[in-house]
Design goal:
Layout lengths: L3 H42 L4 H15 L4 E8 L5 E7 L10 E4 H7 L3 H5 L3 E4 L9 E11 L2 E11 L6 H32 L2
Length: about 200
């Protein structure tokens, strides 16, 4: 039988091991986000189309949430009248044609009334479930400088857990992706102005 000191020592070692595992997991997640951001930046600088950008974002979501379903949507063009999209999982019919936002996320991110008024955007009181038979949903709009570029929705099928840490991870990814997409739009606008000056 172990003494109190030995039990205390075992407890300290177990806690230290758990902290190391948590730190390693966070490091891997940060690396995945950085990798996606760098890949997206490379494609944006070469003028890649939305399908290539969608692929990069989906690859990042897939690597961070391998067992979850997801829907990634990007608004097309400066008028934002259509949506490019890609998904994994049993998606409800027709939900991919609109960007689904919660009223609270629209308010927090400062999305303009013009954008919210667009027929392509649908507001909800709570995070909607866009996939069949899921238990938990996380939704993050792709917003930078009050401009909406799209959205990422991740949902957990039965047996897959999603928690607050996952939500923070998705927010971090979305912030980086939105920044890259905003930079692309600024680059496109600069090129357009140069052509007509």
């Amino acid at each position: 039988m172990k003494t109190d000191d030995e039990l205390l020592y075992d407890s300290i070692i177990e806690e230290a091991n758990q902290r190391l595992l948590n730190a390693l997991t966070q490091l891997k997640e940060a690396r995945q986000i950085h990798k996606a951001f760098m890949a997206l930046g490379k494609e944006l600088s070469s003028g890649a189309d939305r399908n290539v950008l969608l692929g990069i974002i989906c690859e990042a979501v897939e690597s961070l949430f391998p067992k979850a379903y997801y829907l990634v949507q990007l608004l097309e063009g400066s008028d934002a009248r259509s949506v490019a999209w890609r998904f994994k999982g049993p998606l409800h019919t027709g939900v991919h044609t609109r960007i689904h936002l919660t009223k609270s996320s629209a308010k927090k991110t400062g999305i303009t009334a013009d954008q919210i008024g667009a027929s392509i955007i649908k507001l909800h009181e709570e995070v909607p479930h866009l996939f069949h038979e899921t238990q938990h949903a996380i939704h993050v709009p792709l917003v930078s400088e009050r401009q909406l570029f799209g959205a990422i929705q991740v949902e957990a099928p039965e047996g897959v857990g999603l928690g607050d840490d996952d939500e923070m991870l998705l927010i971090s990814l979305a912030n980086q992706m939105a920044l890259a997409l905003r930079n692309q739009r600024l680059l496109e606008e600069t090129r357009y102005l140069k052509e007509y000056m």
